[in-house]
Please model this.
Amino acid sequence: MSPAREPPALSNAVTDSQWIFTENELLRTPSILDGMTPEKERENRGKGVNFIFQVGIMLKLPQVTLATASVLLHRFYVRHSMIDIPGRPGFHYYSMAATSIFLATKIEEDCRKMRELVIACVRVAQKDPLKMVDEQDKEYWRWKDNILHNEDVLLEALCFDLTLDPPYKILFEYLNLFGESNNRRLRNSAWAFINDSCMTILCLMYSSRYIAASALYAAAKRCGIDIVDDEDGRPWWEVIDVELIVIKRACNFLATIYENAYIKNGRDVSIHESTPEISDESTAKTRSTAARSRETPITETSERVQEPKKRTRSPDDVQGRIIVDGQDEGLVDAIANMEENRCKVTNGYITIKADGYNFSKSNRPAAPQAHHNAVDDISEEGEVES
Model:
């Protein structure tokens, strides 16, 4: 008999509790109280996180460090405003995003030189990744002074609470716990869910444990994977001590963000279905009870993934996205796999053969997506005022 499953130990539960808010409380942030609409405030937060990701890519920072920086940014704007009012200047989200990266690299012990950080910030802000930045430039010193000055402000706003537990590590522990660590499709889907959640205020509404559990639930539902109950007949969410209804609320919050992004751009397409919060737990789509397991035994393979179905969607439905073996992998960088004599253009699409896969990427103007790629909307202005 195999040993009973032991869930990951709870950590930072008390520390995280002071940074968890309700949706109504998040409608009374300083920026909103100063007259900014909730939609605009959340859009600016997303732009700040997008800035963090683009600078992080230039500095080759790991995703955990970038996620930590995004959490610091979201927490900062719970206590400070983006709007300038007489007698009290606001804090620009690009300036605070740069400061959040600077502090996150220290927290995660993945430091970069100040010069490298400043140059990356200038290049991303001005949408010029090849811009030559001299240390004697006025722009260079403006960014450096802002980062050093705002570091103390950021630390004070955080109450020097720098103990963070990113959901990526917890997600990996959950995958190991349920024997799904080698399931690449499930793992990548859950990882993408957490990446997208960084753009939102989800980290202010739920703890890292619930974000990781929600990512696992959403990924399992999307991939059609059932997680077997434990020896005592408990479903997987009870094994890791989380509530299913809270998981569904977190998934529905991000699903709403996805749906609104498509509707806003004139595409009323719901690619992420909302999940009813009140439903029969015994028939949850991500749960495999003992009886169901006996009826449909699982083969011992490295990945329990169904054969992908061929899609018959029109080219307009997949504009700007990448298809790998019939699956929608929007974050795959197919261009990096291009080699001479290994690609061709057919009906406006670039087909690339690499590592056993056929990558296809449209060379037509891409439609806006829920994912935030490249330097899309980094800056309306070329510099940040101190």
Observations:
- Residues 144 and 285 are 51 Å apart (CA to CA).
- Residues 290-386 have pLDDT under 50 and may be disordered.
- The longest strand covers residues 349-354.
- The two ends are 64 Å apart (CA to CA).
